[in-house]
Amino acid sequence: MARHIYSCPLRWSDMDAFGHVNNVVFLRYLEEARIDFMFRLAPGDGSPSFSGGSVVARHEIDYVRPLVHRHAPVTIESWVTKITAASLTIAYEVKDPEQVYVRASTVVVPYNLAEERPRRITAEEKLFLQEYLDQEPAVV
Questions:
Q1: What is the pLDDT of residues 79-101, one digit of tens each?
Q2: Which domain, by its residues, includes 75?
Q3: DSSP H or E run through 27
Q4: Gene3D superfamilies, per this entry (predicted)?
């Protein structure tokens, strides 16, 4: 099983009054990593996959330890834990080599923007996602 690796820069504005990255900002980090992951298959190679849209149905986040601003980016590892006919679950770890700051998951539903309704995962998308599929739950 492969993991998608995303190097996420920290911004000074990500910090809150307590001097660490605000909990809401982690959702933006996960979004950046998820978009980078899902669009690895899409238009660059001429594939229409995932370019039609998707919506987030659910987020779960476990905050393990505070992250403070620094110049070095944080690593976000992403992988797939579940694929159904019309949704997928992506798991994440926001981390440095020696520690994890956040463990999270997102349920994503492919969406047909033109028809304004959810759609099924295509065979091409499923094949791509299976490369990242790990059916063992992450240790929390």
A1: 999 999 999 999 999 999 999 99
A2: 4-130
A3: helix 23-38
A4: Hotdog Thioesterase
